[in-house]
């Protein structure tokens, strides 16, 4: 019977037709009118219904004409668009396939091709394609690696022989007429090292076998079984290749991992006679180092490539051009280029082909859409690196693409199930043991892994679930069969034994040598060539722990050897271990074959000994022999299913007693090995991204017989997994299996809802299922259960007002949180309550406004407690919606949400910046915290919480020290005996000075000032100035701290002496101290009267005269008149507190009109005002009026009695003493009348001073001309000081303004100090130089220049 010809695949059939088209002769073209080619518009492309193929570059015309390429693609309804010279094209947005040879394909180019599904590289390598960018966009990349496999391999040997036999040199010598080149060497016996054992590397190895090389070693992370089968051996490190090879051929791809792999360290391992051949990519070798070492003769090389793309010329000045190394630029002939383009077309054709007749077209397939990020990407599939996984993955891929309609891309191939676990988790490097790259992952692009042997990796699976609970994969369960490892034998043996003697070899008991001779149906150990088996010392027979356990378990110590402390399995015939059943007669044994280092060797030994089976255990020398020996020898063999390796034998499993887990846990393997569930694992987010895909995979149930059927099909046809899977899916019987897996497109699951693909909207029923599918509910909707005649499904319902859904794929809408609302349906987020509103319940459609006068600190407030009085007001109610907001009183800061409770506690829920507080300089009590008092000194009232005083003060508002203490200016200090002594001495000294004043201030009145008069005037003027400054200091403005000390010192002359321990002398009671101050003026007069009458008891020369005594008494009250008037007006000088009460300016603890001593003070003050101020002033006015008459009547006693009033002034200005006397009370009067109005005080005082300045300027009253000028100067300084007070009426926050005010007042105080210094100089000059006034040597400065002495005197001026 003739062999059945293998059917061609769809792609191969298309390729064959295309090859015929290219090979067929072309008929002569008939002349036609010129026709300009046009690119179809978008609408035309859609009407044509064909795919657009974008060509980045053209083949050379002599290799393959452009027209031929177009015809090839057009015949398959593929429209070609060629790039312009600048590698752009006019219409590209519709391209689904991009074809390139060597032009770079990067992310920027991919961004211009939104419909692209495939990049087809008509070339072997694809290092010029941005694979990561393609992966992210779901674009497949394919090349044609086999189009020049033979050519590249043969070129390698051409370069090798050129170097070994010196062919280029010999050619040059012969042409030059020479015959003396070095002798050549043979290739035979050389050691070959091949880097990269793919198609080209494998072909190089096959050719080298023909030349009888001594050894072939290879280096490649991916092991090629065919390389091992032809005698190649893999090494573990690249350095081993360079150390132990005579000839090294580089055949690997250029990747980030291989770029620069052959570096200086590797090249230094080469010998001068070593040969390095590179037919791969130049960038794999460090070009600079290689060039230098070649020029130095460190090794020899044959180079087909250098660093750069193929087609680029080596620079003219490159050092390699002058070397004797053979250089060949690979330029495939026209035929090879044609094949490359044909194979490239095959890729495109396969990409566009479908398996199932009713398949969803590629252009209608969709990506997954991440509802959280909005990112779109294909469904990613991880493939196990074994045959059954390849086939099952193709079955899944075809159904997912053609029936469910998703774009699918391969994310990698893993040769261990656990690699797939990490890939599904989203790990960047799932195959890298030790660093899988899982940290920080939040999205996975791998979603499906069929044929996951989960049970064999349960610890790793569990560890992933713990380490990455949000990303770890989900096991959808068994996919229809279990995997297992066991003992197998060919089914023909079973049939033969059964037919011959009815012996059942399916069960282990059929092999018991005591009952049966099963060995006769198998080959004995002698039938096996020892060269095909591993020596015993290379197997698990050398593992002491395993062998010792075997002996202890079975008691078969004869089956082991004890060497010292080591226990080894006994070796027979160098390669076998014989069980007791046939140990004495090896011919009675049959063979069990395993691979590796003796997989399951100890389990086999336990079973054969325990069940008396005459089976010899042996290990195949390598994997290739293991796969071949059971096919040529009849034996048992170790195997696992599903796997195609021994399917042609129709293997039968030997059944042992059922699996005993407890026994296996301790190493007892005499029972059947357990099976492992073969599962389907998916990413954790697949049920959100594509619930119908997960439903399909959950329904997957394929019998192992069907998997074996497909694997046998692949063995028989030699086709790839796709063709085999496609044929199985097309089979009618198979369709009965897999069609049951397909999900109902209208049966949605939680987190999804019905979506109409025609109207592109969510719908609420499924009466017409034509365009329905399930789609994850978008943001603003939730998945709601819906029941109809077809059963349960889910619909995506708009979120009602008061709720939102931001993430999509949700089972319910999230109610708006506290402080939020939503007044519309279908919203993705809730709105925050605006400022002034709150919401203290979830799921509300509107917010609640705060009560009148209150607001919130910001938006989104969750509680009525967040409503607080606006800044500048304070809550006197119960807070929240019971708030009563009053204006913040003066002297208190009221930030947002201030309340009386917060004021008392000093805390606020919003933080320390929101605590209401008493301002520095103000005070309130705890029981009436909002009744604010104003203090006269910031030090005394530091502010903060109510009842806070500074320096130990007490009494409202921080105005008194406790009994026995006195105010020092910064704190209350304890009274001491020295304080009392000081005041006793001071009082005695003061009264003593009054007595002395009688003798100093009673000189004769003259027209011109005497020395003593000048001194007295200077002293009096200084005192008057200081009193005036003290009065100005009493103005109710905020003087800066550096001036308050000066002004306080001047106020001593106004008897403001509380800072000098006066309370230690006069008592702590303010009214009592005031009474003492008032009594001082009367006591002083009484003291002088007492002195007058007491002097009568003395001799006549010491007795006081009546008129002089009266003048002294007047002088006392005149000097203290400003003080006396200020003291008398103190009970009338009331300033107003923010709470409406009034306190005395000097005694803030005394409430005006109160019962705390103010009445007594009023009585004392009025008595002093009536008697001392008005009485004395009236007397002085009368005396000034009568003075001319008294002087004319020569009434010397009266004139002498009022000497104090006129002695300082010129005779024509005798009256000036009265206005000067009135100046002090007038300056105090504005402070009394406008205590709460500093601006009024400033204006009135300046008016008063201005009037006095004018009067003084016109009258020139003082006898000493210099004193007139000094008085006006001092008056002007006072005016400036008062004017400067306006700068402190409302203190500016501007630093520049504050600096100016401080500098101005400091300058004025400096002027006043200068005036005082001049007064002091005048007084001292008059005392030291008594002729300074009135003599021939008088100081001209006193008179402001020299006077004309002509006899015309002051009296003449007055008379005429």
Automatic annotation (TrEMBL):
Residues 636-730 form the ABC-type glycine betaine transport system substrate-binding domain. Residues 34-44 have a biased composition (Basic and acidic residues). Residues 20-44 are annotated as: Disordered. Residues 76-386 form the D-isomer specific 2-hydroxyacid dehydrogenase catalytic domain. The keyword Membrane applies. GO terms for molecular function: glyoxylate reductase (NADPH) activity; hydroxypyruvate reductase [NAD(P)H] activity; kinase activity; NAD binding; transmembrane transporter activity. This is Tyrosine-protein kinase ephrin type A/B receptor-like domain-containing protein.
């Amino acid at each position: 019977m003739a062999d059945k010809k293998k059917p061609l695949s769809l792609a191969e059939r298309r390729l064959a037709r295309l090859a015929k088209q290219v090979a067929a002769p072309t008929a002569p073209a008939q002349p036609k009118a010129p026709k300009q080619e046009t690119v179809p518009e978008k609408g035309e492309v859609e009407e044509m219904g064909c795919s657009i193929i974008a060509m980045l570059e053209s083949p050379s015309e002599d290799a393959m004409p452009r027209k031929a390429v177009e015809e090839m693609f057009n015949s398959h309804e593929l429209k070609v668009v060629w790039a312009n010279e600048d590698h752009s094209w006019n219409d590209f947005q519709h391209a689904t396939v991009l074809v390139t040879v060597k032009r770079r394909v990067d992310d920027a180019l991919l961004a211009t091709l939104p419909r692209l599904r495939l990049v087809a590289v008509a070339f072997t390598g694809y290092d010029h394609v941005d694979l990561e960018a393609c992966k992210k966009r779901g674009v497949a990349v394919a090349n044609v690696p086999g189009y020049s496999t033979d050519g590249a391999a043969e070129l390698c040997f051409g370069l090798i022989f050129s170097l070994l036999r010196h062919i280029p040199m010999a050619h040059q010598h012969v042409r030059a007429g020479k015959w003396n080149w070095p002798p050549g060497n043979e290739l035979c016996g050389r050691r070959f090292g091949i880097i990269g054992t793919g198609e080209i590397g494998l072909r190089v190895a096959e050719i080298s076998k023909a030349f009888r090389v001594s050894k072939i070693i290879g280096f490649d992370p991916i092991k090629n079984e065919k390389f091992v089968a032809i005698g190649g051996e893999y090494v573990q490190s690249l350095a081993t290749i360079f150390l132990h090879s005579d000839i090294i051929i580089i055949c690997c791809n250029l990747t980030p991992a291989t770029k620069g792999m052959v570096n200086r360290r590797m090249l230094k391992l080469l010998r001068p006679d070593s040969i390095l051949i590179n037919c791969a990519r130049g960038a794999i070798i460090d070009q600079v180092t290689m060039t230098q070492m070649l020029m130095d003769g460190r090794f020899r090389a044959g180079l087909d490539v250098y660093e750069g793309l193929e087609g680029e010329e080596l620079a003219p000045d490159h050092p390699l051009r002058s070397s004797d190394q053979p250089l060949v630029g690979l330029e495939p002939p026209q035929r090879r280029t044609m094949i490359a383009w044909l194979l490239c077309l095959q890729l495109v054709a396969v990409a566009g082909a479908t398996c199932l007749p009713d398949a969803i077209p590629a252009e209608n397939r969709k990506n997954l859409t991440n509802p959280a990020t909005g990112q779109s990407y294909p469904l990613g599939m991880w493939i196990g690196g074994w045959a059954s996984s390849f086939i099952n993955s193709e079955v899944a891929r075809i159904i997912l693409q053609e029936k469910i309609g998703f774009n699918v891309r391969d994310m990698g191939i893993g040769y261990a199930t656990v690699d797939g676990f990490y890939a599904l988790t989203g790990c960047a490097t799932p195959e890298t043991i030790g660093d899988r790259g899982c940290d920080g992952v939040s999205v996975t692009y791998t979603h499906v892994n069929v044929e996951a042997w989960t049970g064999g990796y349960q610890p790793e699976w569990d560890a992933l679930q713990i380490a990455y609970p949000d990303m770890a994969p989900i096991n959808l369960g068994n996919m229809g069969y279990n995997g297992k490892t066991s003992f197998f034998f060919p089914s023909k043996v079973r049939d033969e034994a059964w037919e011959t003697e009815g012996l059942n070899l399916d069960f282990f008991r059929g092999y018991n040598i005591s009952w049966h001779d099963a060995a006769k149906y198998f080959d004995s150990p002698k039938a096996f060539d020892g060269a095909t088996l591993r020596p015993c010392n290379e197997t698990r027979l050398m593992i002491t722990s395993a062998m010792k356990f075997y002996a202890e378990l079975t008691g078969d110590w004869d089956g082991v050897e004890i060497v010292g402390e080591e226990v080894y399995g006994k070796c027979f015939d160098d390669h076998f271990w014989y069980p007791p059943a046939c140990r004495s007669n090896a011919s009675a044994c049959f063979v069990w074959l395993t691979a590796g280092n003796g997989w399951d060797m100890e389990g086999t030994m336990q079973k054969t000994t325990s069940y008396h089976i005459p089976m010899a255990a042996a290990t195949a020398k390598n994997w290739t022999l293991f796969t071949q020996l059971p096919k040529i020898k009849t034996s048992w063999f170790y195997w696992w299913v599903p796997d195609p390796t021994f399917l042609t034998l129709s293997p039968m499993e030997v059944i042992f007693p059922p699996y005993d887990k407890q026994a296996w846990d301790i190493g007892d393997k005499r029972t059947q090995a357990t099976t492992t569930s073969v599962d389907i694992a998916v990413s954790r987010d697949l049920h959100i991204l594509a619930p119908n895909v997960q439903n399909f995979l959950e329904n997957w149930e394929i019998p192992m017989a069907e998997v074996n059927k497909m694997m046998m099909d692949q063995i028989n046809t030699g086709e790839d997994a796709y063709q085999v899977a496609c044929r199985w899916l097309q089979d009618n019987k198979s369709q009965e299996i897999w069609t049951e897996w397909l999900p109902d497109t209208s049966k949605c699951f939680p987190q999804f809802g019905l979506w109409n693909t025609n109207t592109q909207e969510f719908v609420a029923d499924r009466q017409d299922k034509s365009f329905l599918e399930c789609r994850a509910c978008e943001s603003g909707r939730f998945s709601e259960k819906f029941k109809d005649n077809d059963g349960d499904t889910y619909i995506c319902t708009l979120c009602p007002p008061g709720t939102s859904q931001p993430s999509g794929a949700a089972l319910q809408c999230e109610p708006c949180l506290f402080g939020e609302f939503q007044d519309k349906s279908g919203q993705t987020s809730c709105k925050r309550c605006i400022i002034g509103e709150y919401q203290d319940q979830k799921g509300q459609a509107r917010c609640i406004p705060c009560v009148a006068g209150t607001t919130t600190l910001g938006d989104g407030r969750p509680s009525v407690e967040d409503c607080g009085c606006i800044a500048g007001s304070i809550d006197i109610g119960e807070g929240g919606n019971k708030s009563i907001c009053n204006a913040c009183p003066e002297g208190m800061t009221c930030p947002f949400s201030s309340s009386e409770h917060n004021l008392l506690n000093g805390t606020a829920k919003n933080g320390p910046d929101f605590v209401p507080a008493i301002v520095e300089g103000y005070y309130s009590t705890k029981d009436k915290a909002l009744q604010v008092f104003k203090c006269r000194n910031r030090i005394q009232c530091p502010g903060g919480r109510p009842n806070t005083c500074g320096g130990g003060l007490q009494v409202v508002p921080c105005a008194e020290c406790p009994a026995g203490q006195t105010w020092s200016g910064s704190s209350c200090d304890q009274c001491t005996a020295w304080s009392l002594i000081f005041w006793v001495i001071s009082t005695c000294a003061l009264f003593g000075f009054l007595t002395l004043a009688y003798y100093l201030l009673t000189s004769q009145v003259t027209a011109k000032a005497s020395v003593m008069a000048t001194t007295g005037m200077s002293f009096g003027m200084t005192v008057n100035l200081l009193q005036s400054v003290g009065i100005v200091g009493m103005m109710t403005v905020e003087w800066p701290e550096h001036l308050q000390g000066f002004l306080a010192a001047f106020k001593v002359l106004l008897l403001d002496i509380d800072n000098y321990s006066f309370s230690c002398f006069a008592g702590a009671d303010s009214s009592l101290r005031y009474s003492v101050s008032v009594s001082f003026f009367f006591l002083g007069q009484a003291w002088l009267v007492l002195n007058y009458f007491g002097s009568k008891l003395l001799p006549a020369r010491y007795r006081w005269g009546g008129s002089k005594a009266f003048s002294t008494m007047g002088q006392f009250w005149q000097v203290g008149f400003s003080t006396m008037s200020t003291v008398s007006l103190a009970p009338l000088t009331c300033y107003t507190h923010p709470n409406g009460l009034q306190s005395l300016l000097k005694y803030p603890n005394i409430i005006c009109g109160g019962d705390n001593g103010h009445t007594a003070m009023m009585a004392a003050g009025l008595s002093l005002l009536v008697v001392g101020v008005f009485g004395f002033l009236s007397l002085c006015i009368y005396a000034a009026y009568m003075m001319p008459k008294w002087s004319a009547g020569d009434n010397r006693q009266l004139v002498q009695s009022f000497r104090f009033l006129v002695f300082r002034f010129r005779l024509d200005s005798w009256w000036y003493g009265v206005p000067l006397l009135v100046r002090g009370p007038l300056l105090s009067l504005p402070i009394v009348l406008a205590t709460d109005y500093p601006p009024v005080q400033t204006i009135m005082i300046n008016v008063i001073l201005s009037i006095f300045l004018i009067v003084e300027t016109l009258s020139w009253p003082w006898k000493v001309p210099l004193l007139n000028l000094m008085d006006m100067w001092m008056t002007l300084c006072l005016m400036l000081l008062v004017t400067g007070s306006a700068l402190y009426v409302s203190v500016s926050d501007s630093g520049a303004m504050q600096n100016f005010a401080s500098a101005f007042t400091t300058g004025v105080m400096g002027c006043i100090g200068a005036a005082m210094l001049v007064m002091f100089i005048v007084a001292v000059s008059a005392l030291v130089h008594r002729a300074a006034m009135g003599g021939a040597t008088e100081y001209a400065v006193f008179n402001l220049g020299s006077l004309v002495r002509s006899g015309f005197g002051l009296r003449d001026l007055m008379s005429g």
